[in-house]
Amino acid sequence: MVDSETARTIVGIIGNVISFGLFLSPIPTFITIFKKKSAAGFKPDPYVATVLNCAMWVFYGMPFVHPDSLLVITINGFGLGLELFYVGIFFIYSPWNKRRNILLALLVELIFMVVVIVITLLTLHTTGKRSALVGILCIVFNIAMYTSPLTIMKKVIQTKSVKYMPFYLSLANFLNGIVWAIYALLKFDPYILIPNGLGSLSGLVQLILYATYYKTTKWDEEDDKPAEVELSDTRA
């Protein structure tokens, strides 16, 4: 019999593998940007938001905040670096007004992280209290990020086209949410369970829309106005 801690570790490793794929799923988008030498048609917002999301989860997984969360740190540490790389590509291939917005957003996120770290370490002196504060913030940011795909889902329904809704990103979101929800249940952690439960539901809705409108999508037709939406990604 596999004990719960071993099972949790195994599920966590599987979650890391899926999350790794989830982080890499936007690569086709960036290949397109490289080829066109322009980020027009795509928004950097989800990637900028994911930078803060990953940073928060890395901090949550620290031993002095939430012990025994090494697998949370490893995947989100990797994700943080990759998302910064993605944002850097947007910065290079965007006009100045978008570059300015990216810089301002990153500055706000940096200031916010510093404030959270200082408050957590100086005013809260137990891992239970620190986990509660940082965990609640992680949940809030994850839920906020789930609103990002709503724009593209609305567009899919209106146009009956899934051209700008990446299938593999939606699938990875669904699988990622399921696995991390199981991970959280094996050693009950509501701060991981709630956002990933919602993430799996969001991914499922996206997959249903993809299946529904795949046949009506005109893949080779040029749009009059490029879609300026991208799905966000989330993980524990």
Automatic annotation (TrEMBL):
InterPro entries: SWEET, SWEET_rpt. It is found in: Endomembrane system. Pfam families: MtN3_slv. The chain crosses the membrane at residues 12-34, 71-93, 102-125, 131-153, 165-186, 192-213. Keywords: Membrane, Repeat, Sugar transport, Transmembrane, Transmembrane helix, Transport. Its main location: membrane. The keyword Ribosomal protein does not apply. The keyword Transmembrane helix applies. It is a multi-pass membrane protein. Mediates both low-affinity uptake and efflux of sugar across the membrane. Belongs to the SWEET sugar transporter family. This is Bidirectional sugar transporter SWEET. It comes from Rhodamnia argentea.
